[in-house]
């Protein structure tokens, strides 16, 4: 099911990121516990009552030196393109400014529902002033206080009320859905085109799944694949460039709909900070991941080159230790044939279920090999384990006291599970639970 998207727009310092953090709350802090993951806090899943949706803080998208009004215009445009509902935030302690008017003008022309949030209304007396904001033209102003968490419920009720009817996105069990992500010019379009032009590949159709994304279906040796969001990738002379400022956002949406994510690195320019951010999102989303080192043709090679490059990749992407690395050239098509098998393996592993009895044999062997730690005189006891989900494979280990399950011991068990079942390409989750 496609989740609705909500974007927060407003000039700097009105409190957008404060509200964003409140709404996505816990999830962000979990993410930041993952070592080595760097990210912009611009896009995250949020929840209101029984509805989950994706929230964009447009304020986090561009930190450029452009004049304020230009930045505001860009942010409003992104919100209009990407969101189902827009939260327009103003500062209730400052009144309406020229930048607010500028944003209002752009939002007004779009046909997207806009909910007006007047922030920093920290106490009931201040509510009197919010009627001034009717003049912005978006109906009832919602008084909120991000700092104190006031008024958010009413605001969200209105927002959720505008969500479009959910269309079920039918995903076929036997089809592998994957996306190709990476910073501009790593060769995403080239790779997609190279795959589509392979002799043994049949490109059957282009289907419009969501408003803005165009997916491409292809078949190779009886295996169906769908490449998510190939808009602008299939033609030369890209449409994509014009939309570069959305590229991260688009990547995030594509990741969400994928089973496997190909995260591209440019062998010519080497690994850059942005590569880590983009790959970090795929990791957090729990998708199977393949690291594709493209433009391998540009590298002078001897028998050690690949090993050395691999080492470099591993040290930059430590949290992706499960992701296989595929070296290829989209341009010359050298080694391109290694990609499809890697995709199949990663996808299978992402959906793999292991039998409970075998899992428990592995756990018990592990306990014998490396006895559980003792914390303050109390020893961790592991009772049994079970797999509770796939995509990604998720395991619950029942113990006497989850607090005794240290990161390092969990890591040890994860490695043992990986050795036993081979989850190459897929992340796995392990949770410790107290036995009821
Ligand atoms: P952004 O630039 O729009 O993302 O704004 P921030 O979320 O960074 O907030 C800007 C400043 O306003 C920070 O100092 C916040 O602590 C403050 N702030 C945010 N929400 C409120 C609020 O509801 N009341 C008050 N008084 N201050 C707030
Ligand atoms: P995108 O922005 O990620 O879609 O990247 P493109 O596919 O448009 O490629 C950017 C540039 O890199 C183009 O000039 C491509 O011809 C070039 N390129 C892509 N793949 C390769 C490759 O494997 N080897 C070499 N030498 N150049 C490549």
UniProtKB/TrEMBL annotation:
InterPro entries listed in its UniProt record: G_ENGA, GTP-bd, GTPase_Der, KH_dom-like, KH_dom-like_a/b, P-loop_NTPase, Small_GTP-bd
Function: GTPase that plays an essential role in the late steps of ribosome biogenesis.
Annotated family: Belongs to the TRAFAC class TrmE-Era-EngA-EngB-Septin-like GTPase superfamily. EngA (Der) GTPase family.
Quaternary structure (record): Associates with the 50S ribosomal subunit.
Pfam families cross-referenced by the UniProt entry: KH_dom-like, MMR_HSR1
GO biological process, one term: ribosome biogenesis
SUPFAM superfamilies hit by this protein: P-loop containing nucleoside triphosphate hydrolases
Keyword flag Membrane: no
PROSITE patterns: G_ENGA
Source species of the chain: Lentibacillus cibarius
Keyword entries, A-Z: GTP-binding, Nucleotide-binding, Repeat, Ribosome biogenesis
One Gene Ontology molecular-function label: ribosome binding
Keyword flag Aminoacyl-tRNA synthetase: no
Residue ranges constituting the EngA-type G domain according to the UniProt record: 4-167, 176-351
Gene3D superfamilies named among the record's database cross-references: 3.30.300.20, P-loop containing nucleotide triphosphate hydrolases (3.40.50.300)
Binding residue positions for GTP 2: 182-189, 229-233, 294-297
Taxonomic lineage of the native organism: Bacteria, Bacillati, Bacillota, Bacilli, Bacillales
Protein's UniProt name: GTPase Der
Top-level division of the source organism's lineage: Bacteria
Residues annotated as binding GTP 1: 10-17, 57-61, 119-122
